[in-house]
Amino acid sequence: MLKLIVEFLGTMLLSFVIFSSGGNYVAIGVTLAIAILLGKRVSEAAYNPAIAIALFYAKKLSVTDLVPYIIAEIAGGVAGYEVFKMLV
Questions:
Q1: 5-50 pLDDT, tens per residue?
Q2: Residue 73 burial by Cβ neighbours in a 10 Å radius (0-12, 13-18, 19+)
Q3: Whole-model pTM?
Q4: 66 with 58: CB under 8 angstroms?
Q5: Is residue 52 a contact partner of residue 61, using CB atoms and an 8 Å limit?
């Protein structure tokens, strides 16, 4: 469960920075690097359904974890956008 919370929060933070920075690649890159450094010990720090699928095919993520990871990442992206809308 903690893995899914980390995926949700990391994706939420990343999507919030993407929307709020106007696509500033430095801000996005720094945010992604920090999220990976903080989340790697708990989860695979994918923060993207495509990366989760790649980890599954690389046999670093089990099939039982794949679908919950994707759901948590999509929900995190939506939540990041909703937080952005609330603050703008």
A1: 999 999 999 999 999 999 899 999 999 999 999 999 999 899 999 9
A2: buried
A3: 0.93
A4: no
A5: yes
**What radius of gyration, in Å, describes the C-alpha atoms of the chain?**
13
Go through 44-61 and write b for each residue having 16 or more CB atoms within 10 A of its CB, e for each that does not.
Answer: bbbbbbeebeebbeeeeb
Is residue 74 within 8 A of residue 49, CB to CB? The reply is: yes
Interatomic CA distance for residues 9 and 75, integer angstroms:
9
| DSSP collapsed to 3 states, 15-72 | HHHHHHCCCCHHHHHHHHHHHHHHHCCCCCCCCCHHHHHHHHHCCCCCHHHHHHHHHH
List domains and CATH numbers for the chain.
2-87 (1.20.1080.10)
DSSP state at residue 24: -
